[in-house]
TrEMBL record:
GO terms for molecular function: metallopeptidase activity. InterPro entries: CARDB, Chlamydia_OmcB, DUF11_rpt, Ig-like_fold, MetalloPept_cat_dom_sf, OmcB-like_DUF11. This is DUF11 domain-containing protein. PANTHER family: CELL SURFACE PROTEIN, LARGE CYSTEINE-RICH PERIPLASMIC PROTEIN OMCB. It comes from the Bacteria. GO terms for biological process: carbohydrate metabolic process. Residues 575-661 form the CARDB domain. Residues 695-800 form the DUF11 domain. Signal peptide: none annotated.
Length: 963
């Protein structure tokens, strides 16, 4: 920068031409300073430049010169303490005022705190010793003496600023010159760098870059700027990392080298490149994910600012909770000054595991046209395959670090416009910068340089694209990545580009949406095909200072900027197959055929090869088919069928599965990280009838009395039952007839007497709707021959089917009744009396007889109807002259005695005949007689018929009973 202005009084002493020349030389001198790098050497350059020497007292032919010797021939001696005296060349001869611009630079050891400098002006005499001029305002000393503080550049002594003039007092009375006083001479000079000098214009003074910063002026450096370069802009970034996520070796130096080679020339020093300092600082505790937003979540250590500022925020001291600044900074007594200085000049980057609710996003940074100071690299959630697909972990870290840094310099995904605004337009073919998703990683163009855009490229208008020019994109030497139908295409920059992708004929004014490339990342989804795609260079428009950004303050980061994810980076050169599955029936009955449709897609950046689909039905074996390969964005469908089993449980969710597999164009299998959507399922709910039957019966009855049976059926399934039939089987010794049935019904459709003595009642239920139900109530009577304590059990069964011919196992239920007995009256009547006493032959008594022996039904030659009538009983009881009528009459009399509780089946009997026959109870006797009547009345059976008639006569006459 130009030297400080010479005081007005001195300037007025200069001639106009000399003033103009001096001003010009001051500017040139200011621009020519190229100090050496501070940290590379142990010295610091300091320059004294003598700008003007002129006489204050007369010095022509008197004073310095003797009479007749004209004006002085000036030269000087400049002495840096600790260095040899430096004698300057002589100025023009015989001049009372000269602007010699004598310059001396010494490299001062950085151990020196104050550098003493003295200047002596002399007049050269060829005939005598040279004369000394008095340039000191102090008595007794002709030397101008100053001290330069080498930490902050302040100047003390005869000159109290870095530039100005000092005049001698002329030593009145002779002083040190004895009897020959010397005239006062003025010397104007500057010392560079000045305390405020910033040779490279980066915001750090030269003294700060060489020595560091002394905040309290105690001549002790409180903070240094590591490896500062006074010739180039220094950019400092503190890098911290979570446990296990330290940047890979060489990553930081590689990104620093990118800036070292930056296409930037320092306008003040002429040096090229930028001095980026990525300071590898310290490890912070691990967190799986943290937030990087303005709204700070509750809790500790779940937020970027928890780490940078601390939570609670305690910046300094041994109890400091934040991580910004080094541990030494936070422990320093000047901590507050140091951190305040760094907050205004140092960016802060953190290598973390992952960001909250952001999947595998690679990083995040503050982005504004005025820049930003905070960013994260969030690659801890990436998998090995993700790293492999971009060239390894180190390559991913380098690219992401450079990308996120670019955002803090005000670069968007499309760079920065001429007016300083951020360009967010992503994936522009003519923008070849690591800021674009097309170029962030070297997974499409494997040799793309790690760099920001160095030179501006041709502007592309999507509605006026030239497919005929050669080269296809002027200013571009690398392959061109552009979109065709949403898929990336790699074209040559040295040949015409088929922007539309539809082949010849080619147009000089084609239209295409060439930056719409969602196969790179959803962030490259652009809907317009009429955009103007600008492509200015990046390096000449970086925003170095961030203190004007609204996001500079701690805790303020601005809107979330979508960033490239590991998933996107992985699939950009992979086939990423997807499977979708639908079925034509969300609900199906047993035996139904379900048709499944599989939709296979490829959302990856590479076409698929070796593509196949496997359909696995809910039942049955999987089916695998090879399908044609799919281009990026392509899709096709395949259909499969399966049959719902009849045996499936009602309400079962039948799940069909489709899975697709494939490789990319190079034959590499699809990576595991993208396989989550390679499988799809579709469900169908099965509906079948489920019949249930319950049976209830009167818990206990006396022998011969009616048992009430209640049978309920219910379809608990979600489909109708078809052809349903209810059967109820009464055990032997339980009699049913519709004539005696006093239940609520309905009556059975059929009654079947089985050979084993059981009786089956059948009802046709037909179709029973889902949740349909029905009840049958009927009565039946147990035989009078059952003794107390006996039990009778009936069994219900429902058979049914379903749609599509499905048949199901019958469902059953049972009910049990206990037989009780009434104490007999012990007054049986003989058959003759029963023939006369119709009043005692009540309907109930006759019904009990019918339940015990049905042979009397129809005895009057009427059609048997399942009920015993008075007429039928009378026909049996009257005129019992011959066998078997006699025996039948006695049998009816005995059963009437049982029915009217005069005797019981268990009543003990004993006579000679009964004993001979081995009978003990009335029941035994009746069963014996029943068996007799079942035999033909032949001569062989004459005795049996006689015995049977006798024993019943004895019972009916109350002779055989033993109560």
């Amino acid at each position: 920068m130009p030297s400080a202005r010479i005081p007005h009084i001195v300037a007025n002493m200069l001639t106009r031409p000399l003033r103009a020349a001096l001003a010009f030389l001051l500017v040139i001198a200011g621009l020519s300073i190229v100090p050496a790098q501070a940290r590379a050497a142990a010295t610091q350059p300091l320059t004294v430049r003598i700008l003007l020497v002129n006489c204050i007292d007369p010095c022509r032919n008197e004073g310095l010169e003797a009479a007749g010797e004209s004006a002085p021939d000036f030269y000087g001696e400049i002495t840096f303490a600790g260095f040899p005296v430096h004698t300057t060349p002589r100025a023009a001869e015989d001049q009372e005022q000269v602007a010699p611009f004598w310059e001396l630079t010494r490299d001062i050891p950085t151990t020196v705190v104050e550098q003493e400098i003295s200047i002596l002006i002399k007049d050269h005499d060829s005939t005598s010793d040279d004369d000394w001029a008095d340039t000191s305002p102090r008595a007794g000393d002709p030397f101008t003496r100053v001290k330069v503080n080498m930490i902050n550049g302040t100047v003390t002594g005869d000159l109290t600023s870095s530039a100005g003039c000092v005049a001698g007092n002329g030593e009145p009375g002779g002083g040190i010159f004895g009897a020959d006083p010397k005239p006062a001479v003025q010397v104007c000079f500057e010392i560079t760098p000045s305390s405020a000098a910033d040779s490279d214009g980066d915001g750090f003074t030269d003294y700060e870059e060489f020595r560091g910063r002394d905040f309290n002026n105690d001549n002790v450096v409180d903070m240094t700027l590591p490896d500062a370069d006074p010739t180039r802009r220094d950019i400092y970034v503190e890098i911290d990392w979570m446990a296990g996520l330290k940047p890979q070796p060489g990553v930081l130096s590689r990104v620093e080298q990118v800036f070292n080679n930056a296409l930037v020339t320092n306008t003040q020093t002429g040096a090229s490149g930028l001095a980026l300092h990525l300071i590898e600082d310290e490890q912070v505790p691990f967190a799986a994910r943290i937030d990087f937003g303005d709204v700070r979540p509750a809790g500790t250590y779940d937020d970027f600012d928890d780490i940078k500022q601390g939570n609670p925020a305690v910046a300094c001291g041994t109890t400091g909770t934040g991580s910004f600044g080094s541990a030494a900074d936070r422990a320093s007594p000047r901590c507050s000054d140091i951190l305040n200085f760094k907050r205004q000049r140092f960016r802060y980057g953190l290598f973390i595991n992952g960001l909250t609710n952001s999947g595998t996003t690679s990083g995040r940074a503050e982005l504004h046209e005025q820049g930003g100071n905070d960013f994260v690299v969030s690659l801890g959630v990436w998998t090995t395959n993700m790293f492999t697909n971009v060239g390894g972990r180190a390559a991913a870290e380098q690219a992401t670090l450079l990308h996120e840094l670019g955002h803090t310099f005000g670069l968007g995904h499309g760079g920065r416009r001429d007016n300083g605004t951020v360009d967010d337009l992503n994936c522009k073919p003519n923008y070849q910068s690591v800021m674009s998703y097309s170029w962030q990683f070297a997974n499409i163009d494997g040799n793309r340089p790690l760099d920001y855009q160095r030179f501006g490229k041709m502007t592309l208008k999507e509605d006026d694209l030239d497919e005929t020019s050669n080269p296809g994109l002027p200013g571009v030497v690398r392959p061109v990545i552009y979109g065709v139908g949403g898929n990336w295409t790699l074209g040559s920059a040295s040949a015409p580009i088929d922007w539309t992708g539809d082949g010849p004929p080619f147009s000089a004014s084609a239209q295409a949406n060439i930056n719409h490339i969602p196969t790179i990342d959803p962030g490259c989804t652009n809907t317009s095909n009429t955009e103007t795609l600008l492509s200015p260079p990046d390096w000449d428009r970086l925003k170095y200072s961030f203190t004007s950004s609204p996001y500079w303050s701690d805790g303020s980061h601005g809107p979330t900027v979508q960033e490239l994810t590991g998933d996107s980076a992985l699939k950009v050169t992979s086939a990423d197959l997807t499977a979708g599955l639908t079925v034509d029936k969300a609900d199906a009955a047993g035996g139904d055929t379900v048709t499944a449709t599989v939709t296979i897609g490829n959302k990856g950046g590479s076409g698929s090869t070796a593509t196949s689909v496997t359909f696995t039905p809910p039942v049955g074996d999987p089916v695998t088919r090879t399908v044609p390969n799919l281009a990026p964005g392509g899709s096709r469908t395949e259909t499969f069928t399966y049959t719902v089993p009849c045996t499936v449980a009602d309400g079962t969710t039948l799940t069909a599965t489709a899975a697709v597999t494939g490789k990319n164009a190079e034959g590499t299998p699809e990576p595991a990280e993208t396989l989550a959507d390679n499988t799809a399922t579709a469900t169908t709910e099965a509906h079948v009838p489920v019949m249930a039957v319950t049976s209830a019966a009167t818990a206990s009855v006396n022998a011969g009395e009616a048992i009430t049976y209640t049978v309920t059926h219910r379809n608990t399934g979600s489909a109708a039952a078809t052809g349903a039939t209810l059967k109820y089987t009464l055990p032997a010794n339980v009699y049913y007839s519709t004539a005696l049935d006093t239940g609520a019904g309905p009556r059975p459709a059929s009654v079947t007497r089985n050979a084993d003595g059981t009786t089956t009642l059948t009802w046709s239920l037909g179709t029973v709707a889902a949740a349909g139900t029905g009840t049958v109530v009927f009565t039946a009577r147990p035989s009078l021959l059952l003794e107390a304590g006996a039990t009778v059990t009936g069994a219900a069964a429902v058979t049914y089917g379903g749609t599509n011919g499905c048949a199901f196992d019958p469902v059953t239920g049972s009910s049990q009744t206990s037989i009780t007995a009434v104490a007999p009256s012990r007054q049986p009547l003989v058959s003759t009396l029963w023939a006369l006493r119709t009043d005692l032959r009540t309907p109930e008594a006759l019904a009990r007889v019918q339940a015990t022996d049905t042979r009397f039904d129809g005895a009057d030659d009427s059609t048997p109807n399942g009920a015993l009538s008075q007429s039928e009983a009378s026909s049996v009881l009257f005129l019992p002259v011959t066998q078997p009528r006699k025996l039948r009459a006695e049998l009816l009399a005995t059963t009437l005695n049982l029915a009217t509780r005069r005797i019981n089946a268990g009543t003990q009997i004993r006579t000679i005949t009964i004993q001979r026959l081995g009978l003990t109870t009335v029941g035994d006797a009746v069963r014996y007689v029943q068996a007799t009547l079942a035999q033909p009345q032949t001569l062989a059976n004459l005795i049996r018929y006689t015995d049977s008639t006798l024993i019943l006569t004895e019972i009916n006459a109350n002779v055989a009973e033993r109560y």
